[in-house]
Write a structure and sequence with these properties.
This protein has 389 residues and is of the alpha/beta class. Helices cover 29% and strands 19% of the residues. The strands form three sheets. Strands 10-9-8-11-13-12 form a six-stranded mixed beta sheet, with helices on both faces. It has a five-stranded antiparallel beta sheet with strand order 3-2-1-4-5. The chain has a two-stranded antiparallel sheet with strand order 6-7. It is elongated.
Length: 389
């Protein structure tokens, strides 16, 4: 066979192997389908086999080993939620149970699954003044917290840095438990007064708890009752408690039952100890006061919503050194001292501040012994602290 015949034979074989246009199109579509089936999207924290029906592998631990899960068999139960706690359906509403910078631990309203999610950028930028433990939030496809839903109540205090903004402590609570101690550290009624004033007409009821009653020195009962008498006259409850002896715990349990409460107080007064006494299995961290100055030390570093028992929740907050007043001006202060009202009718000026004006009915009652001097001195301290309207 000469070269010309060899070339002709080679061309004939090549033409016979050439695929038609329809055959090429069919093969391209088949390749696309196979590629899509192989590259299934992975779920966060899971490694999927290329077979779309295969069960997810367990997430790997820090040592590289696969974490073990309960249950027999190598296939996942198709009716069970994914092992990282996420479900395929959107989680529109959730409850904030803990916060960290830029993140929130939430409990989905529809199925109770807890998720650790990032905050949307605009919410993250104003987290301290826009988001609190106890808030109901809108969650976008179980991937991030995007907005805060309307509240029924909120507890806030001014930012200690001096900025004119509020820091939120808790949201959607029914009871604010103002925790003080009779000793170690010493009883400080000013915190009670400030928080009661901060609550104002919010509809949230305060409950004063004086803890460590087993350490009460002689005459302490009279001192506490005298300081809290103006609040008791307004219907604010007062409970003597000792986590050592169990005194008052049943009264406190009854006051909290069926409600969501928030525990607020100075460091070292025993907020976490109270939670432990009510529900020992929660085992909250506690600490002793400093011997050098008798002040408490922080053991709770961030607010957290705890389920005490079914239908009853409590938010344990870090201790506060001071509790300023938010959105309260001098002109509105006297309205929070109900005992001033009857005497203020005798003031010469309708807008009397009860501080510098002549012919003040409130100061006249003070001089006559008809008004508590301790309450009036508190009023003066708060008046000096507040900005004019």
């Amino acid at each position: 066979m000469n070269d010309k015949d060899k070339l002709r034979e080679h061309l004939a074989r090549s033409i016979g192997k050439e695929k038609s246009y329809d055959e090429k199109k069919r093969l391209r579509e088949l390749a696309k389908r196979r590629k899509a089936e192989v590259r299934k999207p992975k779920r966060r924290g899971e490694e999927w086999e290329e077979d779309e029906d295969a069960a997810p592998r367990a997430p790997r631990t820090a040592g590289g080993r696969e974490a073990r899960h309960e249950g027999a068999g190598s296939r996942a139960d198709p009716s069970a939620p994914p092992r990282d706690g996420r479900a395929s359906a959107p989680c529109d509403a959730a409850l904030v149970i803990a916060l960290a910078p830029g993140r929130a631990r939430v409990r989905c309203r529809d199925d109770g699954i807890e998720l650790d999610l990032p905050l949307a950028p605009d919410l993250r930028a104003r987290q301290a003044e826009e988001l609190a433990v106890g808030d109901d939030v809108h969650v976008e496809r179980r991937e991030r917290v995007v907005s805060v839903l309307p509240r029924r109540s909120v507890l806030a205090r001014p930012d200690p840095s001096g900025a004119r903004r509020a820091l939120l402590l808790a949201a959607n609570v029914d009871v604010v438990v103002i925790v003080t101690s009779i000793a170690e550290p010493a009883f400080k009624p000013a915190l009670v007064d400030r928080i009661v004033l901060a609550l104002g007409a919010s509809g949230v009821r305060p409950l004063v708890v004086v803890n460590k009653w087993d350490l009460a020195p002689a005459g302490a009962a009279e001192t506490v009752e005298s300081a809290l008498a103006p609040h008791a006259a307004q219907g604010i409850g007062f409970v003597r408690v000792s986590t050592k002896t169990g005194q008052g715990l049943e009264d406190l349990r009854a006051a909290l039952d069926g409600r969501r409460s928030v525990f607020v107080g100075h460091s070292g007064v025993g907020k976490s100890s109270l939670v432990n006494a009510l529900v020992p299995e929660l085992a909250r961290a506690t600490g002793a006061v400093r011997a050098s100055d008798g002040k408490g030390q922080h053991t709770t570093t961030r607010g957290e919503l705890l389920t005490l028992w079914p239908g009853t929740e409590a938010i344990d907050t870090p201790g506060v050194r001071q509790f300023g007043l938010w959105r309260l001006v001098r002109a509105d202060l006297s309205a929070h001292f109900a005992e001033f009202e009857v005497f203020a009718r005798a003031c010469r000026f309708k807008d009397c501040s009860h501080v510098v004006e002549p012919a003040c009915g409130v100061r006249a009652a003070l001089d006559a012994g008809a008004l508590s001097r301790a309450r009036f001195e508190l009023y003066l301290r708060l008046w000096e602290e507040l900005d004019p309207p």
